[in-house]
Specification:
The protein is an alpha/beta fold and about 400 residues long. It has 19 helices and 14 strands. Helix 1 packs parallel to helix 7, helix 12 crosses helix 13 and helix 13 runs parallel beside helix 14. The protein starts with a strand and ends with a strand.
């Protein structure tokens, strides 16, 4: 067993406004199927409950199940998928009519993820006390500062900037929201954030592998529409972050960036977010274009958790860190950044999956992991990381 002192770290990819608003909501992510089902059935019948952490691989709900549950909004662990119980619909129909009417339209939902986040945040609520609770929990988990990769709304952005945590967080905004912000509010943002595909949890990531048991890779833009958005927003002279999990989405992003580069139009910085299944040729192209890869070492656990929907040969392609670092020269903390996406928060879980991954190509040394996170901004502190080689586990103590 080894104990290492580490500083508070910076999470380069999470959803601060959304998670802070959801912090007081029930979380079923650690419950098994039967326990979570009993819990959902026990919720109040007279008001809406917002519940997070739903994993469809653990709890499958049929239309009949949803018809029998109390009023609730059930948010997928990936944040992309959700479900309303039948009893919830009358309570939210006037408040979020667009989402209620399109709730079963998978393509619309994946194309409007920022709108979903806005609705989640609105239904749960965000204020300084929730930010206080959120950041207190992050500090205990080893994280001192964050990047909100899709700020939920202009109101959420103002709430965070007016809080005492303003110096410890930065925000990215969806194009439609960014365009509506004042010049001052734009200055609080690092740039615009686009979603090109879905998630593995929702079986909608644009992965070049067949899905087991159902699934449909989704692209939220055509090539023409994507380039149009990038060309329109480059005039803001800001940063660009693009969510692209699977090879198909990554390829689309690179095509658009190549075309933008050929016209000598450039963003201040360009980040590709997640890129879990990035190929060697795609990574080399990103390197040549000066693109930063923003990845989540904790998602190495997907290679175990999602064996129900992707083959072993496909899961082996997830998070190819050794190829990126050893073969192509990506440097943690420079053009290879690490964050959690809040799944889960903290440094212990990504450290465990970095040091003890299911496939050797996914391994990161502790030094590489910490460099990819970097020191927290606006706060200092030290914690102890306990590494148990025999149990292949990592824990954190203050």
């Amino acid at each position: 067993m080894t104990t290492v002192r580490i500083p508070l770290l910076h999470d380069s990819h999470t959803h601060t406004s959304l998670y802070a608003s959801l912090a007081s909501c029930p979380d079923i992510s650690t419950m098994d199927g039967s326990t979570s089902r009993v819990f959902l059935e026990s919720l109040p019948a007279e008001r809406l409950s917002v519940v997070r952490g739903w994993k469809t691989s653990v709890l499958s709900l049929s239309p009949a199940d949803l018809a029998g549950l109390p009023p609730l909004l059930l948010i997928n662990f990936s944040l992309h998928g959700f479900a309303f119980s039948d009893a919830a619909l009358p309570l939210v129909a006037d408040r979020i009519p667009d989402i209620v009417s399109r709730r079963n339209d998978g393509l619309w939902c994946e194309s409007n993820v920022p709108r979903l986040f806005e609705a989640y945040c609105d239904l749960a609520g965000l204020d300084e006390s929730r930010l206080e609770s959120y950041f207190s929990g992050l500090e205990l988990a080893g994280i001192g500062s964050t990047e909100d990769m899709t700020v939920a709304s202009a109101g959420a952005l103002r709430t965070m900037n007016a809080s005492r945590f303003a110096g410890r967080l930065t925000s990215w905004a969806a194009p439609r929201l960014y365009e509506s912000l004042s010049a001052e509010e734009k200055s609080w943002c690092s740039g615009i954030k686009l979603f090109l595909d879905g998630s593995i949890g929702a079986r909608s990531a644009a992965i070049a592998c067949p899905w087991i048991g159902g699934g449909a890779s989704v692209l939220t833009y055509t090539d023409e529409a994507l380039f149009g958005v990038l060309a329109q927003n480059v005039a803001y002279d800001t940063g660009l972050a693009i969510h692209a999990i699977g090879q198909i989405a990554i390829e689309q992003a690179l095509r658009a960036l190549e075309k933008l580069e050929s016209e000598s139009r450039r963003y201040k910085t360009v980040r590709l977010e997640h890129v879990q299944f990035i190929s060697r040729s795609q990574a080399a192209q990103a390197k040549r274009l000066g693109v930063i890869l923003s990845m989540q070492p904790n998602f190495t656990s997907d290679s175990v958790d999602y064996a129900d929907r992707l083959s072993q040969s496909c899961l082996a392609l997830n998070n190819p860190f050794r190829m990126l670092i050893d073969d192509l020269g990506f440097v943690p903390g420079k053009d290879l950044l690490f964050g959690s996406d809040g799944m889960p928060h903290g440094i212990a879980y990504p450290a465990q999956w970095s040091l003890f991954p299911p496939f050797p190509a996914q391994r990161l040394s502790l030094e590489e992991l910490l460099a990819g996170y970097g020191h927290a901004r606006g706060i200092t502190g030290l914690l102890r990381l306990v590494i148990d080689e025999d149990k292949r586990s990592v824990s954190l103590i203050s």
